[in-house]
Amino acid sequence: MLAVDKPRQSPGVVVQGAGDAPYNYAPSVLSEGGRIRAWWCSQMSIAQPGGDDILYSEGSTLDGAFSAASPVFSGSSSGFDAMHVCDPSVIRVGGTYYMYYTAASRDNHANGSAVGVATSPDGITWTRANNGQPIVVPSNDVIRENTYGAGQQSVVYVDGWFYLMFTDTTGRASHRNGAGQYVLRSRDPLFGKGVDALGSAGMAPVSATNQPRTRSVVEAFSADWMWIDAVSAFAIAHETDAGTTITFWDKDFTRQPFDPVLIPGVWREGPGLVRTAEGHAPIHPTDPCGRVSLDVLRATVIGAANAPTDIRHFGLDAVGMRGCATTAEASALDGYAVPSPENTADVVVGDEVIRFERRSVAAKFSRGVLKERPVVVDSLPVAVRVPAGAQAVRAPDGAVGLVLDDELWIVGSAEVAALNSSPIKHVTAEQWTRYKRRSELVAG
């Protein structure tokens, strides 16, 4: 069972719309490049046509006021998303941002909402993908009083797969009020081919994204999720009476590795987890294997339009995961320095380690230094050793590298060479290019 500590919340509203925005809710939040970036659902009169819009702002911390809101995506005036676009879920894979959104052609949902996708190079300027057509529509397994349809989606990217979780009030496994969360996955971000659906027997191929929905992972509306690398598990944030509950599932959805965790506090609708660009949990800086920070932005009050608004930050840490038990989970240690069996220091880089003779140099190239060595690191091969005094070379443009096993490892500056007591040899541009380039050692 996980323990929790370090409860926190912002002193006030951090994300809000302009003066004419009647509600603000269902944020998608990325921690990226030293910024907290948020996209959420609202309405602004300057964004046409009239209807729900997706707004954007950013801040330097979770507790300070973000920049002024601006609309970045609105209805298309025709088609399935003619009037309303809402519930954004944003991830970045490589150099492309993907925004999965709920859309409706008009105010009532008689035909049901559907899920669309747009792409962007920067998260600000968006282009509709899939020829402007939806990628997920209601399955219509069951006709219920709740005619919302399919939407309120959240996407994560894990091991080359896009995992899409979403509501479908017409799904067979939904609660009688329509609550439920279904899962599809595909290596295609548009879910046009190679789609698996989660059913009673696990993930299995389906011929279309509207096949009968036979299994829900949590009874909820407007949920968000992320992937926790250190324990190979999904964490799903959803509304409950006392706040936001986090429910955990393993990768195959065969077991729940931890009991649910509650983030208490006032709430209204649509918690947005603070995630990395690919939708993963941020790695904890001091305890990457045993602790995960669970932070959400969520609406807290009912506004003038009788809708949720005033988005604030709530969070806590879950402790006691005992992660990093497998080679796959060792990815949570990427960039960390750990003691080595040779009384030196290892820095985990991908699925290898770099062994430094001097701990001070290892610390320079790490995002953090752990006091104890996780057992899983013993299974990672040593890519190269960095002895004190190793030869350094400097190119005419000022770039500096260490020559290790006849390969050039770029270290960036003469400061690092001095810290390692490495003599620096000046070389010509031609000599520099002759070295076999292995990698770069990037300072943490």
Name the CATH class of the largest domain. Mainly Beta
Contiguous uncertain segments of 5+ residues: none
Supply the helix-strand structural class.
mainly beta
Subunit organisation of the chains: single chain
Task: Assign the CATH topology of the largest domain.
Answer: Tachylectin-2, Chain A
- Strand arrangement in the largest pleated sheet: 1-21-20-19-2-3-4-5
> How many helices does DSSP assign?
3
Report the C-alpha radius of gyration, rounded.
24 Å
Strand content: 35-45%
The number of distinct structural domains comes to 2
Overall CATH architecture of the largest domain: 5 Propeller
Task: Give a count of the beta strands, DSSP E runs of length 2 or more.
Answer: 31
Helix content: under 10%
Rounded average pLDDT: 94
Please give the largest β-sheet: 8 strands, mixed
**CATH superfamily membership of the largest domain, which one?**
Glycosyl hydrolase domain, family 43
Shape assignment? elongated
Kindly, what is the distance between the CA atoms of the first and last residues, rounded to a whole number of angstroms?
33 Å
Tags for this entry?
single chain; 444 residues; mainly beta; Tachylectin-2, Chain A; 2 domains; 8-stranded mixed beta sheet; 5-stranded antiparallel beta sheet; 3 helices; 4% helix
Describe the structure.
The chain is built from 3 helices and 31 strands. The protein is mainly beta and 444 residues long. The protein has helices at 359-364, 414-419, 429-434; strands at residues 3-9, 25-32, 35-42, 53-59, 70-73, 84-93, 96-104, 114-120, 127-128, 150-158, 161-168, 182-186, 196-199, 202-205, 224-228, 233-240, 243-250, 261-264, 272-275, 291-302, 308-319, 336-339, 345-349, 352-356, 368-369, 382-386, 392-394, 400-404, 407-410, 424-426, 436-440. Helices cover 4% and strands 42% of the residues. The radius of gyration is 24 Å and the shape is elongated. The protein folds into 2 domains: 3-319, Glycosyl hydrolase domain, family 43 (Tachylectin-2, Chain A, 5 Propeller), CATH 2.115.10; 334-440, no CATH class. The strands form 6 sheets. Strands 1-21-20-19-2-3-4-5 form an 8-stranded mixed beta sheet, with no helix packed on it. A 5-stranded antiparallel beta sheet has the order 10-11-12-13-14, with no helix packed on it. A 5-stranded mixed beta sheet has the order 25-22-23-24-26. The mean pLDDT is 94.
